[in-house]
C-alpha cells in the first residue's frame, strides 16, 4: 500500500469539506474495491475520507411503498434484514450472493453504486426497482444514474446517502456468477411494478446495466418464462472477455430471464 | 499518522501507525501476531480472515485506522490456555489441514459461519467457505471439521474464549 491520508468523516458537511480541501481525495466506503484498486495503483488518492460512520448513511426502513437503505449498509446487513426480506426478498437474496461472507461484512451498497462495476449486482436491482439514489446534491432516478461502465451521474464531491427501492408485486434475481471472482458474468433481475414489468441485466452489457424492453413488453402480455425464452439479444451490445464471449453472454440473457420469471412466480 | 486503539484478543492496544497500514500489517508486524497469514493480498483467499466486532473480515483489505475502536480476535485469541477452541480441536481431530497456511483463516471463518447459522449442513458450509481457498486438502475434511465443531459449539462444550 502506498502512502495516503485517512480520515473518518463525522458528518456530511465534514466529509465534503475534507474532500474539497484535499489535493486528490476520494470517499471510502467499506474499502473492498477502493483499497484493492489502490494496492494495484489503479487509483492513487492523496486522501481517503471514510463516510461509513456518517449518521445519514445508516439504517433500513420501509415507508410509502419503498424500502429505504442507508448507503453505508453492508451487504451482510441487507442479506440479514427482516424488513428487506419481507418487502423485497429478491433484494435480500441478491445481497447474499455478493462476493463472500467477509467481503459482505465490509462492502457497502453506496460503494457498489458509486463504483458501478459492470459486473456488480445492485445496479440490476436499482434499475429494475426504479430506485432513487439520494445524495448530498439531491436525487437521481436510477434510469439517469448509471451512465456507463464505472460511470455514474455523481459529481466528485457528491455522497450517496440513501437508496430508495420501489416495492414490487413480485421480483426475482437470477445470478450467473464467475466462479473465480464471484461477480456476475450475466445476471437478470425481473420485477413486476405497478406500471408494468422490468427486466434488467448486469455483468454483460457494453455500457453496464441495461433494461430489456422487448422482454418487458412480452411479460406485460404474458407473465411466464415462455414469454422471454426466445427473445434474442444482439451480441454486439454485449461484453466479451476471457470468461465469456459476447455470443455466450447474449445466449445467457433469455435463459436467465426465463429462470428469473419462473422463480418470481 | 493515525493513533489506532483496538482490543486485540482481549488486550487493549494503542499504536501510532501510518494511515496506509493494513490491519494485517498491524497484527503481524507491529503486534507480532503472525498466526494471521497473507496468501494473496488481494481479498481472494481468506488466509487473513480475523474477527472485527464478532464478524469475519479479510484483514488484508481493511486499514487499521478504519477499524479504530473495535474488538479484534485473531487465531491466537481462540484457545483458552492449553485447551483449544472447539473449532481448532475439530480441525485437529478431522485432519482439516495439511500445510496449514489457510488454516487460521478457515478457523476464523468457520466460527463466523457457525455463529450465523442455527443449523448447518454440508452444502451450506461449502457455500459459506467460498471466500477461503485451500490448495492442499480438497476441502472435505475442512467441511467435516466445521460441521463437527458446529455440533460441539451448539451443545456449548468448551467455552468460546475471547469471543
Ligand atoms: C473478493 C470480492 C468479491 C466481490 N464480489 C462481488 C460481487 O459478486 N458482486 C458485487 O456487486 N460486488 C462484488 N464485490 C465488490 C464489493 O461489493 C464491494 O463492496 C463494492 O464494490 C464496493 O463497496 P465498498 O463499500 O467496499 O466501497 P469502496 O471500495 O470503499 O469504494 C468504492 C468506490 O465508491 C466510492 N464510494 C463509496 N461509498 C460512497 C458513497 N456513500 N457515496 C459516494 N461514493 C462512495 C468510493 O469513493 C470508491 O470510488 C466483490 C469484492 C471482492 C473483494
Ligand atoms: S491475504 Fe487477504 S484474502 Fe488473501
Ligand atoms: S492446508 Fe495447505 S492451503 Fe489449506
Q: Could you characterize the architecture of this molecule?
A:
The complex is a heterodimer of chains A (265) and B (163). Chain A is α+β, with helices and mostly antiparallel strands and 265 residues long. Chain A has twelve helices and 14 strands. The relative contact order of chain A is 0.12. Chain A has helices at residues 12-21, 34-39, 75-80, 82-87, 89-95, 101-106, 109-115, 122-128, 142-145, 213-221, 225-229, 246-264; strands at residues 5-8, 25-28, 47-50, 60-63, 66-70, 132-135, 138-141, 146-148, 151-152, 160-166, 170-177, 184-193, 196-202, 210-211. Chain A is globular and about 55 Å long. Chain A is 35% helix and 26% strand. Chain A folds into three domains: 5-50, Uridine Diphospho-n-acetylenolpyruvylglucosamine Reductase, domain 2 (2-Layer Sandwich), CATH 3.30.43; 55-166, Uridine Diphospho-n-acetylenolpyruvylglucosamine Reductase, domain 3 (2-Layer Sandwich), CATH 3.30.465.10; 170-264, CO dehydrogenase flavoprotein, C-terminal domain (Enolase-like, domain 1, 2-Layer Sandwich), CATH 3.30.390. Chain B is α+β, with helices and mostly antiparallel strands. Chain B has two domains: 2-75, Ubiquitin-like (UB roll) (Roll); 86-154, DNA polymerase, domain 1. Chain B has five helices and five strands. Chain B has a five-stranded mixed beta sheet with strand order 2-1-5-3-4, with helices on both faces. In chain B, a hairpin with a 2-residue loop joins strand 3 (49-52) and strand 4 (55-58). In chain B, helix 2 (86-93) crosses helix 5 (140-154) and helix 3 crosses helix 5 (140-154). The two termini of chain B are 30 Å apart. Residues 157-163 of chain B have low confidence and may be disordered. Chains A and B meet through strand 1, helix 2 and helix 6 of A and strand 4 and helix 3 of B. Residues 26-34, 36, 51, 57, 71, 98-99, 103, 106-108, 110-112, 114-115, 117, 120-121, 159-160, 182-183 of chain A line the site of flavin-adenine dinucleotide (FAD).
